[in-house]
């Protein structure tokens, strides 16, 4: 099923999906089982309540919540008003949150009860914040701005009426972490996210899927992966309506995640590479039966070939690597479910995307040659919020310049080498951290590895590796440097190796390289 051409926004998509599929009860979100009709009804009620609070077209609501049964209805309620949802990672500190609130001039804030102290600090003095909605206990109606329980919005009578929301209007703003300075708000329209849902469905080749489809997700709604999973629900094909189930966990924690796969016999999940490494090296992994998994969709960072091979040796699962970024609604390229996997490749461009490799002059490079990955198509963002210069620099002549380095093979499969900004230039030679990390991961004592560059007076930059050892394993700095030198040119080898108990990671498990750079430079 392609998206009906009359569907021009996400609110209409939810309505059309319910009408097409009828009532289905296979959605477990945050530990609560719901039907699609119940989710839609809650969205309608939240829509009515938000409208009564004066929230409407063009307004913005910041959402600071773990995955919860009300997250999907809340977003639908926001979409239905014609407003914009601004999901933020629940771990955000008060200064980070305040920046987002001020930048978006948010009118409403929604927060988990345990984040209230942070939220109250962040909103202090911001006159544009009119209401705080609290998931859980502790709302203070006498506070300024006034607070009220989120579930009180469900007491309103539902409304099925929808404003005239054009596809070009902004549905979601997601703030990218960035490497320096303040994060940038990525503006994603209804049309962007509808095109994204269409692309995901084509790559999954669900028309040929047979039997039950139980998807387990721990991706936060504040990440583009989480948004994609929400919309994937609404795209369920008719023939899978009775056998599709979603289990949405509140958060990723390795052992509970494995236990959920075991309990629900999940056969599909989405993960960043770090999640696979944590499962592979977890001492309790043998306790859980993960053989129900048919496919794991990985993205968010390049997947080291060694990690993929180690994981599939232990578990008979197909890893389907995808490539994308928030500025492209999470889209870029994907390995199709029914096509042979090429190790190291993130597949071909999505059905509605163009993908090319440009040189420094924005000219295509020959097959096999490295350059910057650039994308064009209906999933490309409307721009960065309040940042016209950065928008113009990133999207040129319709092409999104991703900042990622990669190359194409003769069949159009893309191989992502590294982030352009992560590339280390040592004595005039380009060194790609991902390549070094892959070699380090081949050592039997290494569980995780991250490589960064640090300033050097002689070479411009030098190479520092951070390594987490496997449980019970032992290896020295000199052994690892020699291991690298046996497989790569010596100038690429780390000048030093530091051992850590764990690598610093973001809320979805991406390695925080800026933290490692500070540590390597003696600042952390």
Topology:
Layout: H1 10-21, E1 27-29, E2 32-34, H2 36-52, E3 60-64, H3 71-81, E4 84-87, H4 94-104, E5 108-112, H5 116-123, E6 131-135, E7 147-149, E8 170-176, E9 184-189, H6 190-204, E10 213-217, H7 224-234, E11 244-248, H8 254-264, E12 268-271, H9 273-280, E13 295-298, H10 305-314, E14 318-324, E15 332-334, E16 348-349, E17 354-358, E18 371-376, E19 383-384, H11 388-394, E20 395-396, E21 399-408, E22 414-419, E23 424-426, E24 429-431, H12 433-441, E25 446-456, E26 460-469, H13 477-485, E27 496-499, H14 513-520
Parallel strand pairs: 1-11, 3-4, 3-5, 5-6, 6-7, 10-11, 10-12, 12-13, 13-14, 26-27
Antiparallel strand pairs: 1-2, 8-9, 9-19, 14-15, 15-16, 17-18, 18-21, 20-21, 21-22, 23-24, 25-26
Question: Can you walk through the features of this model?
Answer:
The protein is of the alpha/beta class. The protein folds into three domains: 10-189, Rossmann fold (3-Layer(aba) Sandwich), CATH 3.40.50.980; 252-419, Rossmann fold, CATH 3.40.50.12780; 424-520, GMP Synthetase, Chain A, domain 3, CATH 3.30.300. The chain is 28% helix and 25% strand. It contains 14 helices and 27 strands. It has a nine-stranded mixed beta sheet with strand order 2-1-11-10-12-13-14-15-16, with helices on both faces. Strands 4-3-5-6-7 form a five-stranded parallel beta sheet, with helices on both faces. Strands 17, 18, 20, 21 and 22 form a five-stranded antiparallel beta sheet that branches. Strand 10, helix 7 (224-234) and strand 11 form a beta-alpha-beta unit. The chain is globular and about 70 Å long.
């Amino acid at each position: 099923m392609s998206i009906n051409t009359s569907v021009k926004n996400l609110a209409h998509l939810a309505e059309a999906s319910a009408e097409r599929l009828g009532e289905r009860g296979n959605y477990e979100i945050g530990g609560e089982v719901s039907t699609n009709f119940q989710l839609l009804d809650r969205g309608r009620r939240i829509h009515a309540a938000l409208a009564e609070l004066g929230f409407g077209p063009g307004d913005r609501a910041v959402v600071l919540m773990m995955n919860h049964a009300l997250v999907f209805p809340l977003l639908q309620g926001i979409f239905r008003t014609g407003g914009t949802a601004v999901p933020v990672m629940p771990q955000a500190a008060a200064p980070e949150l305040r920046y987002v609130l001020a930048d978006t001039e948010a009118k409403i804030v929604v927060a988990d009860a345990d984040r209230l102290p942070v939220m109250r600090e962040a909103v202090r003095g911001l006159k544009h914040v009119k209401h705080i909605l609290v998931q859980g206990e502790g709302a203070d109606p006498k506070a300024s701005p006034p607070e009220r329980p989120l579930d009180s919005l469900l007491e309103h009578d539902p409304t099925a009426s929808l404003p005239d929301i054009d596809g070009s209007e902004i549905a979601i703003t997601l703030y990218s972490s960035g490497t320096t300075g303040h994060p940038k708000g990525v503006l994603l329209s209804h049309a962007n996210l509808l095109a994204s849902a269409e692309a995901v469905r084509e790559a999954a080749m669900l028309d040929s899927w047979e039997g039950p489809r139980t998807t387990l997700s721990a991706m936060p709604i504040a990440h583009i992966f989480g948004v994609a999973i929400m919309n994937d629900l609404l795209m369920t094909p008719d023939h899978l309506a009775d056998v599709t189930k979603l289990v949405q966990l509140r958060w990723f924690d390795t052992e509970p995640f494995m236990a959920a796969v075991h309990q629900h016999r999940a056969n599909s999940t989405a993960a960043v590479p770090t999640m696979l490494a944590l499962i592979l090296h977890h001492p309790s992994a043998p306790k859980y039966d993960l053989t129900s998994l048919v496919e794991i969709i990985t993205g968010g960072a390049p997947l080291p070939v060694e990690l993929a091979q180690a994981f599939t040796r232990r578990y008979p699962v197909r890893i389907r690597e995808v490539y994308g970024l928030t500025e492209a609604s999470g889209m870029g390229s994907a390995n199709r479910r029914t096509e042979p996997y090429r190790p190291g490749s993130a597949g071909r461009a999505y059905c509605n995307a163009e993908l090319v490799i440009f040189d420094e002059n924005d000219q295509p490079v020959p097959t096999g040659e490295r350059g910057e990955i650039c994308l064009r198509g209906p999933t490309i963002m409307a721009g960065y919020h309040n940042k016209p210069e950065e928008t113009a620099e990133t999207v040129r002549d319709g092409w999104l310049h991703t900042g990622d380095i990669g190359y194409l093979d003769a069949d159009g499969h893309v191989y992502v080498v590294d982030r352009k900004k992560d590339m280390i230039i040592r004595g005039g030679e380009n060194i790609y951290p991902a390549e070094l990390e892959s070699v380090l991961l081949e050592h039997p004592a290494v569980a995780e590895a991250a490589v960064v560059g640090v300033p050097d007076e002689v070479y411009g930059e030098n190479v520092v590796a951070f390594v987490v050892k496997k449980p019970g394993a032992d290896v020295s700095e000199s052994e690892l440097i020699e291991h690298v030198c046996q497989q790569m040119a010596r100038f690429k080898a780390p000048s030093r190796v530091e051992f850590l108990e764990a690598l610093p990671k973001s809320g979805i498990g991406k390695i925080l390289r800026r933290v490692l750079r500070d540590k390597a430079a003696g600042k952390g």
